[in-house]
Amino acid sequence: MGPMAQLRAGRLGRRIPQLVLGLVLYGISMALLVRGALGVMPWDVLHQGLAQHIPLTLGQVVIVTSVAVLVLWIPLRQPPGLGTVLNAVVIGLVVDPVLTWIDEPAGLVPRMALMTAGIVLNAVATAMYIGAQLGPGPRDGLMTGLAKTTGRSIRLVRTVIEVTVVVLGWLLGGVVGLGTVAYALLIGPLTQAILPVFVVPLATDDLATDDLDRRPRR
Predict the structure, then answer these.
(1) Quick check: 31 and 98 in contact, CB under 8 A?
(2) DSSP code per residue over 156-195
(3) 10-33 pLDDT, tens per residue?
(4) How far apart are CA 202 and CA 31, in angstroms?
(5) How would you classify residue 126: left for phi > 0, otherwise alpha for psi between -120 and 50, otherwise beta?
(6) What is the rounded CA–CA span in Å between residue 88 and residue 138?
(7) 217 located within any domain
(8) Into how many domains does the chain fold?
(9) For residue range 149-206, what is the model confidence (pLDDT) as tens digits?
(10) Angle, CA 46 vertex, CA 45 and CA 48 arms, to 5°
(11) Residues near 88 by Cβ (< 8 Å), separated by ≥ 6?
(12) Residue 212 belongs to a domain
């Protein structure tokens, strides 16, 4: 094995565990925000709303929604990576058991604590799985694919998508609140600050990498 092959193998040995751990932590952070009951992430407003109308758990809805979003990648010609596939499955598998382990607290202070912990943990988790550079999540890929296809800015496309899913989710019964607003305002700066710690540098002749300047989403 040559030096470059050894370098790739060594980095892959870090990238895959970091990816998986990041996705597990992402699922835990989602559950913390749900149990905080002060509002959830924008896409989870939709997930919560759908879960009230179909015989699926929240985690199962997350997986089904991820697959549906991946179908939308086809006309956008977005190539999925290993991280894309694992993102679509692992997060949903983690959410349900964690929700059974954590009860919704009665007081405002512990609920605020769960909300804060969920947002901070989500920023760490996002930085970990994006820093592994093994492919964007289904929702993030939809955003970048639409931006490329329409010629619009990523900021505008992301805003339109997230406002749409929040409104639709709220109409279906999803929880919109302080946590939703706090997440929208804080996740970008927090992730940007943490991301350099987890970025795995890749060799110049590796396959395509993610644009780490974009603030990633699931």
Answers:
(1) yes
(2) HHHHHHHHHHHHHHHHHT---SHHHHHHHHHHHHHHHHHH
(3) 577 889 999 999 999 999 999 999
(4) 32
(5) alpha
(6) 7
(7) no
(8) 1
(9) 888 888 888 889 999 999 999 999 999 999 999 999 999 899 989 999 999 987 644 4
(10) 65
(11) 63, 66, 67, 70, 137, 138
(12) no
Tell me the C-alpha distance between 207 and 218, whole Å. Answer: 21
Give the Cα separation of 49 and 190 in Å (integer): 27
Between CA 79 and CA 71 the distance in angstroms is: 11
Question: Do residues 122 and 187 make contact, with C-beta atoms less than 8 angstroms apart?
Answer: yes
CA gap 183, 117 in Å, rounded: 11
| Residues 175-185: tens digit of each pLDDT | 999 999 999 99
Q: Is residue 205 part of a domain?
A: no
Cα separation, 122 vs 191, in Å, equals: 8
User: Rounded to whole angstroms, how far apart are CA atoms 44 and 215?
Assistant: 18
pLDDT digits (tens, 9 = 90+) for 49-71: 999 999 999 999 999 999 999 99
Q: Considering the domain boundaries, does residue 213 fall inside one?
A: no
Tokens of 182: 């706090």
pTM beyond 0.90: no
**How many contiguous H segments (helices) and E segments (strands) does the chain have?**
8, 0
Task: Indicate the DSSP class of residue 52.
Answer: T
Cβ neighbours around 181 below 10 Å, total: 12
Containing structural domain, residue 56: 3-198
Q: How far apart are CA 27 and CA 29, in angstroms?
A: 5
Amino acid at 46: L
